[in-house]
Specification:
The structure holds 2 protein chains of 2 kinds. Chain A is of the alpha+beta class. Chain A contains 32 helices and 31 strands. Helix content of chain B is 39%, strand content 18%. In chain B, strand 1 and strand 2 form a beta hairpin. Classes of the chains: A alpha+beta, B alpha+beta. The interface between A and B is large, with 97 and 77 residues. Chain A: It comes from Amphimedon queenslandica (Sponge).
Chain lengths: 1133, 237
Amino acid sequence: MKRKQNKKQSAVLEGKGSRGGQDPGLGPPPAKKKPSGLYKPPTHEELQTLKETESLFRTNLIKLQITELISEVKPNSSKEASEALETFLHKLKSELSSIKTTERLKLSEGLRLLPKMIKYPLSFPPSPNIKGHFEFSPPSKIKVTGSYLLETNLKTSPNVNLTVEIPRECLQEKDYMNYRVFHKRALYLSIIAGHLIKKRKLISSLDFTYDLNYPLLPILTLTPKDSSQFTVYIHTTIPADTFPLTKLLPSKSNVRRFARPFPFGEKEEEERECDHEDLPPLPTPHYNSAILLEMGSREKHLEELYSASAVDCPSITEATLLCKTWLHQRGLDQGYGGFTGFHASMVLLYLLRQRKLNHFMSSYQVFRIFLQFLANSNWDERGISLGDRENYPSLPSIDEFHSSFPIVFIDSSGYLNLTAHTSLHQYHALRQEAGLCHALLDKSDGSFGSVFLKPVKPVLKYDALCKFDLSAGNIKGSPLFDRNSDKWEELVFDFGGWVWPGVLDEVMRVIDKGLEGRVQLISQLPVKRNKWAVTAVSPTLAGSDVTLGLIFNTERVYEPLIMGPPADSNEASTFRSFWGEKSELRRFPDGSINEAVLWTEEKGEGEKRNVPRLIIDHILKRHTHIEGVVLTHNTLDSLLSSGKGSIDTREGVSVGVVNAFIELSRELRQLKDLPLEIATVKGASPIFCHTEVHPPLPWNGKSSSKVRSLPLPLVQDHCLHPSCDVTTPTLTPCFHVVMEMEASGKWPDSPDAIDNIKTAFYLSISSSLRKQHGLITGTSKDYIDILKKGYVFRLTIFYLREVSILNDLRTPQSLSKAKGLEKDCISKPLLVSTLNGLHNQFPAYSLGTRLCKKWVCSHLLTNQIPDEAVELLVAHLFLHPGPYLVPGSSVCVLLRFFDLLLSHDWPRDPLLVDLNNQLNDETTSEIISSFSKDRERQPLMFIATPLDHTSKLTKDRPSAPVMGRLLTLAKASLNLLTNQIDSLQIGRESPDFKQIFRSPLTDYHLLIHLDESKVPRLQTGRVSSVDGHHYSHLPIVQFDPVHLYVQALESAYSNLAMFFYDKHGGSVIGVLWKQAAFKPHPFKPNGMQCRVTISKSESKLLVAPDKEVIISDMMILGDGLVRNIEVLETRPS
Amino acid sequence: MDELKIKFSTSRGSSSQHTIYCKRHSVRQPSTKIPNQRTLFTTGWPPYCGRDSIQELFSRLVGQVEGVYLQEGTKAIENEQPQTGGYMIGYIVFKEDEEVSRALSLCSTGSPPLSCCVGDTGLKKWTREYQERYPVESLLEKAAESGVTAYDEWVESEKKRKKHLSEPDEDGWVTVTKKTPIVEKPKRKKKKPQFLMLYAFQQREKQRERIAELRKKFQEDQQKVAAMRANRKFKPF
């Protein structure tokens, strides 16, 4: 049916061309011609589909995309494969039924029944104190359960769940006590394993794994030999009425203290010498729910789900696949307590029972309702239940479950909590993702990809990853985990000796309290589900390294002070006992005296960024004896700091510059004797939006001894000048300021005259500033340099009409000058002020941008990729975070920056950066259509913003090879940094994170080594106050020989080579020849750079550029700066 | 084309040997500044080589040089252009024709390269340029003022000239000059109010349009998805 429709549509498409030009006006339709194409009369079905799409899927696109996705996520289901699987299951079934009955033994001696090669899958043997008998007899029922029958298997892990029923004769009435049923099913499975392991022809691998990752529920997993696509799980089940349900309520205790589990190898002499019987029994909620699950629940769930999808709402099947894909992409279904596809389908069932879904809904609608429901749920306070308590009032109330489990979702029996193992944090993570994606679905752009197609990686999702060591030895003796407390015992009994989930819960509670208000989400990263061969010992369950993901509340996360309760209040002692000696009494400006914890006295942002680590470190040490915590969010910040070992990232400088600028513009407006009023004064350098990589320190006013002021009359004009004989001084950059005067008709019409008038303006402003405000200024033909508070501002006047005058002249020079003016005086100030808005809105923006720019530059791409392009790419991360929240730390920004570079389809899609929310649908589609109409001519890195629809910014740069290199570098950096973060281990030396900022120098043809004393250094040291300084002259401003040299090289050889350097230091320039330009070609008078004759005949003179000559010319061009030029051996291309 | 081997060297000892291609200048419409016969056309001068160095070289080896004109292309030789740092073409104007021949005779194969000293390059040049960027303010002022005055005078003279032209001369002739025509903006037509749902055919028409619209969108979306599929974008795992 689908195919047919496609064909019809393509026929329609062809028909369209014939009538394309005709304008469908108001006139009567051309009656005589047979209508075709878009105007042919619609069939009823077609009309139906078209209308349905609109109401059910919002747009066609989503419907088509979903169809496409569904076919992609389903496992390949060829007829042969499914037949092979069927045969295999039949064979397996007959194998299972053919296992022989064993003798009857005491359960405490049951391990004697264990087949030879098989190792017992539980971590502890049956206690000698327990009663009961065990014998093996073949299963009474063997059934296929789970997603295979529902056709909701995902491609990633296609599986068949086979449930074997342990026959009644193997069970006894009191088996729900003291792990008896768990030992029985473990033995049962072991005996099955012992039988199957001999069937090498049938089965290629046979392993144990834990169902739900819960160590009391081992299951068998096997891969068939011939149809290895599917994994087969063998679960056990027991008849549904084996045990009375009331015995299995969460508050009931079913393990007596004498049956305490002792793992293999651990001696029983550790048993405490006290009378067990006197102590109150401990509730075993997880234990009980595991038994409930075994009691025929799987079959019952399957029945319910099947009837739901077959009868009540057919699109549930598709919707389940969508939900599963969504969960899988987020890793929410992984690990202990994960929210699996089964849970999702049970939620859909619940929604159906609640009449929130109906027969006619599309899968898209179902999925939306699913997300919305999850996002607005609160299962931690008010759980949901499929049980029918109205008709069966004897069922336990939901509150009864809430006192035992953090999250409550009861199945239709009314007794089994499906989310028994889910922790509060896992649930929060789920709810947050659901809310995020529900909001995403409403957006028109690319949301589909973000919701379903893009895997959400933890390193990209979280602002920080936090690692610490939670192994048993590490927490020994900590007050929180007293081995003699009931709490500890409860964990031991409930989890069969596996205390780790409970321990983690406690630790998380402490961290939650410590970071109160500072984070939006803390979540534990899932540990991979592991399986082990049936012949091996079950892996230890002691949790070791724990990785938490943190999403910051960026407003508050770095606050250095925790304000406690007033000193005389009752809460003061609780506060003090939580924080310990860190808590002090402090008097606050409003006179109150409170308990408070101050983490750092420093004012610098860099210090403050350490606060979360200090907090976690302190509270873990105090409450759990865990030593050593790693937090990743600021690992790379030291790259932006002022010197070695310092973590001051100089945010204060940007603020200082902005303040100085504000003061300066006020002073400019106060100037009296100007012929025209000042209209606007705007900043045009990155420092004004706080994205300058290394904000410079204010000039200290000293003419460094190595700089001589020339004995020329020039010094009267208060300017210092550089000299070529000595070390180049540290760079004092200038910040560009654009000033517009009020409109006037007196401006001349010729560009030269405008320049002259401007110079006259500069002179008069300069002298007024000196006279009126006592500022130091230096006047040039094209600008004034003004020294204000130790910073130099370079002021230029912009006259709007000059651009059009220059454009009218139409000479190449005038056109390029007009372009330059437009860029420097219109676009840049506009962009700076817009980005400054982002800085104010998102605290992590400025530091993240600085880090990304630093990375680009450190790979010698300074002049190959415009700074602004990097700024816009980072802006994109904040404005369109996709499946994530807005990034909240610099590392997170950098990683997502790499990810954006790599995942965006640059050749096919424009990157839209919706600054200020100004791109409406109309403009967007305009941009897209003009982009795809003429892709070849558009910039490679196409970035459209509301200010710039055609990506003028990246018109010339980056070029194709640079773009390729950028992507390669980004890929390598992303992989390396991700691996480094993943492999972070406590107690081991931390990896060298700065490695991704070291560029390989092997990929160039030439390396120009510079004389380091001539490369201007960045200022080091700390921000100092400049109020006391009295300046007598202007420093050497923006004198950067490396930059000048690269400029000279580019203007001489841009057709022959590419030049790479790092403006933030580094004494190497990399050169890459453009090999194509070195082929011999006929003589032309123009552009004869370093050509030598290759062959000469009467009619033809062939010439080619000579590399030797170019290299010696490069030496001459950089005379005094270049130390030597290294020719690298032939580069592997 | 003849080849002139020249070895450029700086005061600090770096050197580089170039091939300068040269011939006698001959074009159809020679300018007065650069006449045909006594000019040597040369190409391949490196950016650090100044006019003075070339003048010095040729007056040392050949004879009296009247002028040297350097530029980065063959076009538009009327105006002096600012140099942008590329390789250059040079027109060397001699006093006499023979001097060009003598210069060309230097090109004979096998002769040792001529040596030419170049001026400031590299760091020296950049420090000098830095100084030049902040000239003495009085000089700057003077330059700006004279520029403005020159412009004012030019405007004045233009005005006079135009006025002069529009007045009939002695013979009573008036010169008619080209004036930029004023482009008139097309007047906006007022839209006539339409009665939308007056006739049944309008209703039908609207319906048809709607369906066509839906179909069109459907087709577009299909194309989009097809393109996405072709680019293997539906690979969630």
